[in-house]
């Protein structure tokens, strides 16, 4: 069985967990604290970042976008019309553009600062960068999320899903990053009903259930985190 080295609240790891669930693919989840830079983990991925997928008789596949491409190359055709990366070259460009948007831009501006400051730092020792949360970084991230929600709403007003008529990696990547922020109650859902409706559809999918059971010790999720009818 495949092994996924992940952190439960790493948004990039959540993207791959959702993708594998949509493909009906099971794996063993091994929690990794990347800030500890464990030697065995660095041998799998010298960058020291999660996620990393290891399959039998295959070298480690590091990084969310690399894993997503690997999963499509090895399993995409068998999914038929449920393929998460469309066959059309033009459609594939749009999916990849949005995966890059949420996996890099949204991550840098919203999810990574909030997860790092409000979750990771709770468990980091001083030598690993542990300290009190940076209030300015948190305020900036909570401000930035508003225009990302508006962009999601803009896309959904024109399309059934973010990249087009069908669910793709774009939806799973965006929802994975938002889900980590939603745990902390930092998503202003009342500001865009179209973004909220889209997220409710993604969150209602069976593959989302395992994410909804994740918990941060000593930190309860927001009231709407696991509510499918929020």
Automatic annotation (TrEMBL):
Residues 1-79 form the GST N-terminal domain. Coiled coil: none annotated. Residues 88-225 form the GST C-terminal domain. This is Glutathione S-transferase family protein. InterPro entries: Glutathione-S-Trfase_C-like, Glutathione-S-Trfase_C_sf, Glutathione_S-Trfase_N, GST_C, Thioredoxin-like_sf. It holds the Pfam family GST_N_2. Homodimer.
